[in-house]
Amino acid sequence: MLTAASGLFRQRGYEGIGIAELLEKSGAPRGSLYFHFPGGKEQIGAEVINGFAIRTAARFRELDESGVDLETFIVSVFKTTAKESKACEFDGSCPIAAIAAGFGVDNKLLAVAIRDCFAAWEAAIAQAARTRGMTEANAAVFASAFLASMEGAFVLSKAQRSTAPHLNASRAMQALAAALLVN
After folding, report:
1. pTM of the entire predicted model
2. Could you tell me which CATH number the domain at 2-182 has?
3. Kindly report the CA angle at 112 between 108 and 114, in degrees rounded to 5?
4. Regarding predicted confidence, which is higher, 100 or 131?
């Protein structure tokens, strides 16, 4: 169910799918949905976000711990995001950004999950920057800009049906990193 939900959210965001379509895509019976997810679609969305958040933060930490320099860190992340966009034939984006762009103010569970996800990613990226010599303040700026660039690259890549936004974001983040490392 969560795998099907993640794919659907990637393509059309949170509000773009309904329970019936989710059930059809997952092949799960209606009764199992509310048994496993008593909070319904919002709980499913939050669980997709939480799982994706944990896996992606772990990938950032693994790359950080590999000891690569900051330029290689940046290039590796954006090569991966470009591959992900291309693999889904530019029909999807990051499921977190897709959900974040389309949930309502009444979806408190989603709001918390998205906030916590982005905070975990920023923390992992900032740690990588600090490890490579950036000051605390510059690392926070870098991490925020990195995350905004990464998510923006997914959106532009989907719209343009191209990997170019990921490559351009990578170049921009390399320039920002170089500027923030000397200051």
Report:
1. 0.86
2. 1.10.357.10
3. 115
4. 131
